[in-house]
Design brief:
By secondary structure, the chain is mainly alpha-helical. The chain has helices at 13-44, 48-59, 67-73, 78-90, 112-132, 139-160, 165-173, and strands at 64-66, 94-98, 106-110.
Length: 175
């Protein structure tokens, strides 16, 4: 698409709105994840990936999840979950428990130390989201964006056979 000056804007409203939105989402994610990671590391020495795992465990019943469930819930690739849990175990923030009902699986369980570190990191995480994301959007824009993104997530999880309740749980946790 060209402007009156003849310069290309790189975006044809009629054909590329979806790609434009997708590109914006990818750029914002790429911009903000490292910023939030540095902020958490500086504030409490906690990587963002660790924070995400601790957040999910804290929200789970009895503050524990089977490794497969944790892999489905975190906003990380599932292949990284086992390695992250190993790191968190070494740091004393999580412990592994065997599953008496299924010896092939194990639980990741949030420790008291892990819960304390999560609580210590929460203000830095939340203020980072406000400073670098929400302050740039109106309440109405945030509502539209949240509704649209959770709708796409729900469609994806439904297609994968994941329980639809995970969508509402994740939105309640502040993801």
């Amino acid at each position: 698409m060209a402007t009156e000056s003849g310069r290309s804007t790189g975006f044809d409203v009629r054909k590329g709105r979806g790609q434009y939105a997708w590109g914006g989402l990818l750029h914002v994610h790429a911009d903000l994840v490292p910023v939030l990671d540095r902020r958490l590391q500086a504030a409490v020495g906690l990587p963002l990936a660790w924070y995400d795992v601790l957040l999910e465990l804290n929200a789970a019943p009895e503050r524990r999840l089977r490794m497969g469930e944790l892999g489905e819930r975190v906003v990380l690739s599932r292949t990284r979950v086992s390695r992250l849990v190993d790191e968190l175990v070494r740091a004393g923030l999580v412990r592994r428990e065997s599953n008496p009902a299924d010896k092939r699986s194990a639980y990741a369980v949030l420790t008291d130390l892990g819960r304390g570190r999560l609580r210590a990191a929460a203000p830095a995480y939340q203020s980072g989201i406000v400073e670098h994301f929400t302050r740039h959007l109106s309440d109405e824009e945030l509502e539209v964006l949240a509704t649209a993104l959770w709708r796409v997530h729900a469609a994806h999880t439904a297609a994968d056979g994941t329980a639809a309740t995970e969508v509402s749980r994740s939105s309640e946790r502040g993801h």
